[in-house]
Design a protein that fits this description.
Blueprint lengths: L2 H4 L23 H8 L7 H9 L9 H9 L6 E8 L3 H4 L5 H4 L4 E6 L10 H14 L6 E4 L8 H12 L3 E5 L6 H13 L18 E4 L5 E4 L15 H7 L8 E5 L3 E5 L3 E7 L3 E7 L5 E5 L3 H8 L18 E8 L3 E5 L3 E5 L3 E8 L4 E5 L3
Parallel strand pairs: 1-2, 1-4, 2-3, 4-6
Antiparallel strand pairs: 5-6, 7-10, 8-9, 8-11, 9-15, 10-14, 12-15, 13-14, 13-16
């Protein structure tokens, strides 16, 4: 019987292990397969390199493949644990999620709460998260805040899952890069003591097939593949740039007293223009190491052309062409709002101003009710 018919699976990403196609999903050298059969952990080559060298390999699954896997949820009797990235909530939304969950209850889990300022009251943040989900047509049975990376509130999450699942399976869903696999790893560690079983990475598309984890009553906790949200910044930036814009620590807000016709560059991958309105303080929430530069709007185009890849980084010098050109989005602000650069961060702006946000082509720029 061949390895493929036995359906040996990578414990990192869930792919079926195979030893013939080096470029295919689940490829593992025969020598590594033999070592695993003698008692070692079985990882595909992609996951092995990701875990040990932080190398990311392209994923050949299509959007349709991911959606077909999610469609299995529709007929399941299960609790749906919907994981979103609080720092990139809008980029975390799965369009039309109700089509996949049917009548199953949804537990909304806001991950990466450790990235937001500690001064922000968590109850207020939970209310904001629930209201934003309601606007997207999602009515969660419960809303929780956790940090999978820091192991914050995982015990409370497990208790809530047990309360809500009522003897059913549990499906964990989310778009790529929300920390879903890190969360699953924390759950596995708490329940079994096994650490870092599933491959985790800041790069999108780590989990390639559903991974089933047995629960005490014979039911399953199922980690599903991340849905690809093409308007996320992670899908257009080279790996070197992504490391500079994906927050790893608590965000430190940066306040700017701006007058009309001033610009703030977000490295070389975004731009904020204050077009009209009274002088006002505006607060920027981005990765602490992302360099922000203020200049006059009249000089902004020339400044960008001269300094991108140098003073304005990312992109690094020589990688300018790897990032799509910036596209302009203009908004009239009628209430205190966040101007969101999806997957990058946001700037909180007051009512009564006109602003423009620039982001790489294909990346969403939008306005939402202010989080803070």
């Amino acid at each position: 019987m061949t390895e493929e018919r036995e359906e040996l699976r990578c414990i990192g990403c869930g792919s079926v292990i195979q030893t013939t196609d080096k470029d295919g999903l689940g490829y593992t050298p025969a020598s590594a397969l033999k070592a695993a059969e003698e008692g070692g952990d079985l990882y595909c080559q992609r996951c092995f390199r990701l875990r040990h060298y932080n190398e990311i390999a392209p994923v050949s699954l299509t959007d349709d493949d991911f959606l077909k896997l999610l469609n299995q949820i529709r007929d399941a009797q299960a609790l749906i644990v919907y994981v979103v990235d609080i720092f990139d909530f809008n980029g975390s939304l799965i369009p039309g999620l109700h089509r996949f969950v049917g009548d199953n209850p949804v537990l909304l889990v806001g991950n990466k709460e450790d990235l937001l300022p500690r001064s922000l009251r968590r109850r207020k943040l939970r209310d904001w998260l629930r209201q934003q989900a309601n606007q997207a047509g999602i009515r969660p049975a419960e809303t929780l805040l956790v940090s999978a990376k820091k192991n914050h509130q995982i015990d409370g999450l497990l208790e809530t899952i047990e309360d809500l699942r009522a003897g059913r399976d549990v499906y964990v869903v989310g778009v790529t890069n929300v920390g879903k696999s890190t969360l699953i790893n924390q759950i596995i560690k708490q329940r079994t003591g096994v650490q870092d079983l599933i491959t985790t990475s800041r790069f999108p598309g780590t989990t390639l097939d559903k991974i089933e984890i047995p629960l005490d009553d014979g039911r399953q906790l199922v980690d599903t593949p991340g849905i690809i949200h093409k308007e996320q910044m992670a899908h257009v930036l080279p790996a070197s740039a992504l490391k500079l814009v994906a927050p790893q620590k608590e965000i430190k807000p940066r306040t700017y007293q701006l007058s009309a016709e001033q610009t703030i560059f977000l490295g070389g991958i975004g731009r904020f223009d204050f077009l009209t309105g009274e002088k006002h303080g505006m607060v920027a929430y981005f990765e602490n190491n992302l360099t922000l530069h203020r200049t006059k709007l009249a000089n902004a185009d020339a400044f960008y052309q001269k300094h991108r890849g140098g003073l304005l980084t990312p992109p690094a010098k020589g990688e300018e062409d790897a990032i799509p050109p910036l596209v302009r989005h203009e908004f009239k602000i009628t209430e205190k709002s966040d101007l969101v650069f999806e997957g990058l961060g946001w700037i909180t702006v007051p009512a009564g101003v006109t602003v423009a946000g620039w982001a790489p082509e294909g990346i969403a720029v939008l306005v939402r009710r202010a989080m803070i």
